[in-house]
Write a structure and sequence with these properties.
mainly alpha; 3 helices; elongated
């Protein structure tokens, strides 16, 4: 067993759980009733993207931990390929979240500038 991998994978799982708790607390604290329909939809989609990304981080960590006990090299290779796909999907989610947030608040800036 590689202790560095176990430590890193465990850190990913802990970070995933911390991020999920943070997203849930922020979602519960938010006043969704005072938002417009557009703002509510944005917040809902953002919450889903971020919880999916945080959960995926934990899945990656758990898979890395599981690989430590796999003895068949073909199974190990398949699991590492699954991790690679998950990391790529995580990058796609992060880029979509960045783009969506930038577009949403960019539009808000334009609307605010026009109103002034």
């Amino acid at each position: 067993m590689e202790w560095k991998t176990i430590l890193f994978a465990s850190l990913l799982v802990v970070l995933s759980l911390a991020f999920l708790a943070w997203h849930w607390m922020a979602w519960r604290k938010a006043d969704h009733g005072g938002l417009s329909e557009r703002d509510q939809q944005f917040a809902k989609r953002q919450f889903h993207r971020r919880t999916q990304a945080s959960g995926m981080l934990g899945v990656i960590g758990l898979t890395m931990l599981a690989i430590q006990w796999v003895e068949d090299p073909r199974v190990s290779l398949c699991l590492w390929l699954a991790i690679l796909c998950a990391v790529l999907w995580l990058a796609v989610i992060a880029m979509l979240d960045w783009w969506s947030t930038r577009a949403f608040y960019g539009r808000e800036e334009v609307v605010n500038a026009v109103q002034m």
